[in-house]
Structures are given as structure tokens and as C-alpha cells.
Amino acid sequence: MTNQTIKTIDRVNLTLKTRHRAEKRFRLYGMVSIAFGLLCLLFLFSNIIGKGMRGFTYHYLILSVELDASVLGITDPNDLDQILAANYSGLIKKAAYRYFQVNERKAKKKVRKLLAIDGTGYLLQNKLKQGNVSELLGTKVTILALVDDKVDYYLKRLGEPDEPGKQAFDDQQLRWIDTAKEAGDLKHKINWAFFSTGDSSHSEEAGIRGAVMGSFYLLLVTFLLSFPIGIAAAIYLEEYAPTNRWTDLIEVNINNLAAVPSIIFGLLGLAIFLSFFGFPRSTPLVGGFVLTLMTLPTIIISSRAAIKAVPPSIRQAAYGIGASKMQVTLHHVLPLAMPGMLTGTIIGLAQALGESAPLLMIGMAAFIPEVPNGVSDPATALPMQIFQWFRNADAGFNEKASAAILVLLMFLISMNILAVWARRRLERRW
Amino acid sequence: MNFSTLFTFILLGVAVVYYLCQYRSLSIAKQMGGLKHLHSLPVFYGMQAAIWCAIPCIIIFTLWTILDDSIIRQLTLQYLTEEQQRLPQGELILLLSSIENIAQGTSLQQDPQMLAIAERVNDFQRISQLALTVIVLCAVIILGSWRWMRVSAANNARNSVERTFMVSLFVCSMIAIITTIGIVFSVLFESIRFFQIIPIHEFVFGAQWSPQLSIREDQVGSSGAFGAVPLFTGTLLISAIAMLVAVPTGLMTAIYLSEYANAKLRGIVKPLLEILAGIPTVVYGFFAALTIAPMIKNSLHGFDLSLLGISLGVLDVSGESALAAGLVMGVMIIPFVSSLSDDVINAVPQSLRDGAYGLGSTQSETVKKVVFPAALPGIVGAILLAVSRAIGETMIVVMAVGTAAKLTFNPLESVTTVTVQMTTLLIGDHEFDSAKTLAAFALGLVLFILTLGLNFIALRIVKKYREQYD
């Protein structure tokens, strides 16, 4: 009879093994998920850093150029117009032919394809503009000539299997590149011009300064508008607002706006700021307006949390010594809530810095070679510059885009570290 | 005087008024024998006067700046020849802006008539700026001296300052509502105009999307085809792939972190995963297009599918496959799902878990049979929010997915989405009346309604659920 009345403990023991196995499996799923997320992060970063570092460097050919006044077409060394319009490319071509020792037309054409002649011309022009022209003319100067972006692409990938970029050249050109490399005349160094110039239609001359300044003005406008407005709105909702339907409506609106896709804000900017008010396209001013509307919910929500964290006793003490409501808010609540508000604002601005879709809609993805000097100059922004360079079919631009991504990430990381520091350092806990 | 110097002058004037009024209230107090005889602190008298000066001036200043361009344009119109005045709207605007360019010296046109008009435009602009300067500075002086005379012991300056303060706070908080109204109006009006050209049922149910076709007037389908179904399916396909990646991973991460992990692991893993959410979408797009898409193509293209020895065909992978964009988008959304569900799981009271342990269940059984069902509404809310995120995501798809609208559910083919089409329709030229640009707004309307609906439901669910346990 005993084997018919199975005890509960036996039934438990019967399934215990499978249950424990299930338990282990479940834990494993969790660990795998976390590992997957972290691996993605690792892969993403290593991939981007690996690609991006290439964008900061470039190959240069050490070339000695004779500054021949007759080739340059400079008759009067003091005439700036002549210096600006001089025939630098002729000079560089001549020096290059001499370097590679060619004199027939076909070979000359091949040589020309190895160098970025326009970009090197600017270098030479700058040298003349800064130095004493009449002394320099007729002398030999050594310059670092920019190689063509295809050559740079090929040289950077020399060690890789199936040698990408090789098919762009014929045997003779490859031989020239090899001899120059063996002679030590090809220098691989950091391309400082990348940080000091604006966009260009040649990848070897394109720089990031225009985009960085554009992003700076964009964030400036966004900060100047969204910080005061966000804080004011948060103070109203926390300290003043009566609990009624109207306040509820405002709150629902803020929460919904926080989740509206950013591209919709771009449509708003296009229809209201550009078409209706007629603000100029592609300016940081309009971009800043749009980004302000986007970041406001973030700032309002975090500022409200910061205000909520200020204990009521502080307010009561201030009221007790006769402060008015405005004085309580401005003299006591606001300074105490400020660190939290600042943290929220920095995070909101970091989001705004990486935002692209709304800027795309208001025409900030444009080719603008000049570095902007104010909020109403046409400008592009870092994410837009990345997008522009990404869309360009030239391989050289792709490298620039990865480098620009690294710059963008650097800015974002430092902003986030600043936010964390502000929270740790300044925030008071009660 | 340009605008920024004028603005500085206004601020300077206001500051002067502030100090003068504060000083006057102090001297009144001194005559009466101490501050206690004043109704408010001297600061408030200063502030009240400053507010009275600043607000009207800034209103005049802003309105003038916004309106003067269009007024000058109207005035310029009368100098055009009759022929030019009868030009269609678009060409007229082009003409006017080229005149403005000449006036600013950025265009080198030599046509004497245009040059004369440009000269007039410059005159108008000078007059406008001069008038603005005079009016604003007069306003500061008149208002300031009026307030200065009104300073008295009985004047309840504090109350009026506090009222203004509150009203300005209220106005700032209204911006959220104004933004929503702005979005609705801008999207709605253009959409209505679009639906006047293209019937709404054709847009919602049509299966053919080719807005770029209109090259010649007499061409078949010269107005282009605006059937948005392929866009909806494309968006759905990519979002579905993204959710397939993000929901299980995010959910399991949240469960592991809140139920199993110790505080130390949590403290390391959570911020690390949050980094994924902070990376700009343009970076993800770049990554998807240049790393993941080629990777998928290289590993799957030409792969011979066979089942039980029967060949089912060779895989054909597009370089702009929906799979690449979806996978990368999924990775981006992981932290979004995990942190939202983490919050909900943590909100489940400990007593429920203790009860389950007391009945002898293992930890995973507690999670699966008690915690998860209790947290389910919140998790559903989190997933809905993530879906609306995926639908509205723009840069990843713009960079990694093509623009050809194909009606397919094959993740290895190239599809297009609502957001991609919006950007391709709006980048570049802007004639505001063509069906092409208006279509972007119609798509925007669909997107807005969809995400707003999802958010609204999700926030509702989350809120309702939270109330249960608090």
C-alpha cells in the first residue's frame, strides 16, 4: 500500500533535477543577454576606433620644389593678387615629374594621378603668403606634398590580404610608390589640417572645424533657450501649478513630446520656422530652435525631479522667516536644485549634439566649406558632416567620416563625464 | 545700429531704470524714516520698473525683426515692372531674393533696373533700423521715467513682480502645449493639401510608391504614385527585426540584473549598457551600412538553402538589407527596453517573491510565474514605447536601407521606410506645393499619429500599473 501513497517530498524530488536544470538555463539566458549587449558595445567601439584612427593621418611625399618665378607667373613679389593667383600646380607638377624622372606625356599623366595637386598648391601658397616672397623666389624649398587619396587608401592598407585599393594603379605607378616608400620619402603623419579647416570637395583637404563650430553654435542657442525655459517650466509645475486639468494636460504633453520621433520636430521646424517665419535655411539659429523644443522635455523632467528632491522643511523655514513665494523659490529651492538641473541639461544637450534627423529636415546637411562665425551663418553640424561624408562615394571621405565619429564620441563622452561629475560632486542628499 | 548692439542698449537702459527706481525708493524710505515704511523691498521697485520697460521693448523689437523683411518685400514689389509683378508666385519670390542678394552685395549682377531696386531695398532697411532704434530707445526712456515717477511708499511693487514672475513661469510651461499644437498644425495642414491632390484611400491602401517618376508632363503616371503600403510594410519589417533582437535581450538583461546580479555587477553593467543608448544614431547608421550590411551579404549571399537534400534556391542578399538595419536598431533599443523593464520589475513588491519562495519555488520559477506576470503590464508598456522608438528611428534606416519601395517581407531584400521617404522627399529642393513635398508631411502625420497613440497607451498602462502597488 505504501507505493500507492506517494509522499509530496518524493514528487518534489522527482522533478527537482529538471527544475534545477531549468533554473540554470534561465540564469544562462540572462548572462548570455548581458554578454551579447556588452559584446555589441565592444564590437561597435573597436570597429569605430579602428576605422576612425586612420582618418586622422595621411601620407605625404617629401618633394623639393624650385620656386621658379617664371612658372609661377609672379612678376612683382609685393603684389598679393599675383601671389594668390600664381600657377602653383604647374610648379608642383614639374617637381613631381623631376622626382619620378618622367618626361613623356603618358607617364606624366600617371604621375599627376599620384598627387593631390590642388591641396599641395594651397600649402605652397600659404608658405609664400607668410614668408618673404622676394627672398623665397628662385630658391628650393622642401614641402610635404599631399598624395592622392587613392594612394593614401592603398598605403594605409598595405599589409591586408588581397591588398584593397591596388587595382586603381598600374604596374608602373605601383613601382613608383614602392621606390618612394623605400627611399623614405613617403611620410605617414597626423593630418593637422583636419582640425583646422572646413569641408572641401577633395577628401584630402576636408576638415572638421566647420562642423565643430556649427555644432558649438547649435548647442549655444539650444542651451540659452532650453535651460531658462526648462527650469521655469519645471518650477511652475512643481511649485506653483494647481492640480487641475490644465496642469494634467501640460504634463501629458511633456511626456508625449519626450517620445515623439525626432524627425517630426524637423517637420515642425521646416513648416513653422522656415516656411512660415522665413528664417534662413541651414543656420544654427533655426537648428537651435528645433533642438530646444526637442530637449525641453528632458530638461523639464529632470529639473522637476531635482526640485522634488529639495525637502519641504527648507521651504517652510524660509516662509517662517517671512520670505515671499518668489523669494523662497529663487533664494532657496532653485540653488539647491541647481546641480540636478545642470546634470539634466548637460544630458539633454548631449542628446542634442548627436541628433541628426531634425537637422536633416531643415537643410543642415549641406556642403558648406566656410567655417561659420555666428548663429546666423549657414553651417553644418558634426552628425550632419558625418552623414555628408558617408554619402560621398569617395573612399577618402569614408575615412574622414569615421574620424569625425570619433571626434563626436569624444565630445559626447566628455559631456557625460561632466554630468556624472556634477551629480557626484554637487548634488546634496538629504 | 545692428540688432545685437541695439539689444545691448535696451538691456543697458533697463538696467539704468532698475537702479534709478531702486535708488528712488531708498531715498523715499530715508525721508520717511526707514525701510519699514515702504510696502516692498527696494529691489522690487527696481524689478517692477525693469519689467515694465523690458517687456514692451522686447515685444516691439521681436515683432519688428520678424515683420520687417516681409514689409520691405511688399514695398519692393511696387518698383518692379508690371510684367514682373504678374509673374507666378514662385518666380516672384526668386526674383525678390535675388534682389536682396544684390542689396547685400553677395551677388554681382549688373542689370541697372535690379541695381536701382536693390539700392531702394538698402534704403528701406536703413530706415527700418533707424526707426526701430528710435522707437525702442524712446520707449525705454518714456516707460522708465513714468515708472520712476510712480515709485511711492504705497505702491505694492512686490505683488506685481511676483505676479509677473508666476505668469512668465506659466508661459514657459505652456511651450510644451504650443509645440504639440505647432506639430499638429504644421503636419495636418500640409497633409490636407496633399489629400486634396491624392485621395486618401489611394495613399493608405495603394501598393505602388514612386514619387520620383514625374519627369515629363505627358508621361503615364506623371503625378507619381503615392501608395504608402510598401513603406508601412518596410517600417514594420525593420521594426519587427529590431524588436526580435531588443525585447528578449533587454528583458532577460533586466531580469538578470534585478533578480540575480549583485550590486557590484549591476553598478558596472548598467552604465555600460546605457552607453549603447547614448551613441548617436548617425554612428549606428554608419556602422550598419559599412560593417554589418557587408558582413551579412558576405556570409549569406549565395548560400545554398537545402532541406533534406532538396535545394530550395540560392539566397540573394541585398547590400542594403532590412536585416542589417533591423539588427543594429535592435542593439540600440536594448538599453531602452532593459532600463524600462528594470524599473517595473523592481516595483514588484518583495512580499510577492517571498510568498513564492515560501511555497518552495526556485528563483527562476518565481520570476516566470510571479514576478513576470505581475510586471507584465509595465513590460508591455515598455515594449510599446520601444516599438514607437523603432518606428520613428531615422538615421539608421536612411543610411543603411535603400529608397526603392518594394512590397516584401523578406529581411534579406532592400526595403524602404516611412522616415527614409520623408527625408528623401524633403532633402534638396523645396517647392511647397508639389505633391512630392506634401507627401512627406502626410507620412509625418501617419508617423505622428502612430507614435502618439503608442506612447499614450504605453504611458497609460505604466501609470495604471504603478498605482496598483504604491
Kindly describe this structure.
The complex is a heterodimer of chains A (430) and B (470). Chain A has helices spanning 8-55, 69-72, 80-85, 88-100, 105-112, 117-130, 133-136, 149-156, 171-182, 193-196, 209-240, 245-257, 262-276, 284-308, 312-320, 325-354, 357-361, 382-391, 395-426, and strands at 57-66, 140-146, 186-190. Chain A is mainly alpha-helical and 430 residues long. Chain B has 470 residues and is an all-alpha fold. In chain B, 76% of the residues lie in helices and 3% in strands. Chain B has a two-stranded antiparallel ribbon. Chain B has helices at 3-32, 42-77, 82-85, 89-104, 112-150, 157-197, 200-205, 229-260, 263-278, 281-300, 322-347, 350-358, 363-392, 395-400, 418-426, 435-469; strands spanning 209-210, 225-226, 304-307, 310-314. Chains A and B meet through helix 1, helix 11, helix 12, helix 13 and helix 14 of A and helix 2, helix 6, helix 8, helix 9 and helix 10 of B. Chain A: Residues 212-419 form the ABC transmembrane type-1 domain. Chain A: GO terms for molecular function: phosphate transmembrane transporter activity. Chain A: InterPro entries: DUF3333 (IPR024573), MetI-like (IPR000515), MetI-like_sf (IPR035906), Phosphate_PstA (IPR005672). Chain A: This is Phosphate transport system permease protein PstA.
Cα radius of gyration of chain A in angstroms: 31 Å
What is CATH's topology name of the largest domain in chain A?
Answer: MetI-like fold
Rg from Cα of chain B: 32 Å
Bulk shape of chain A? flat
Strand-residue proportion of chain B:
under 5%
CATH class categorisation of the largest domain in chain A:
Mainly Alpha
What number is the mean pLDDT of chain B?
A: 85
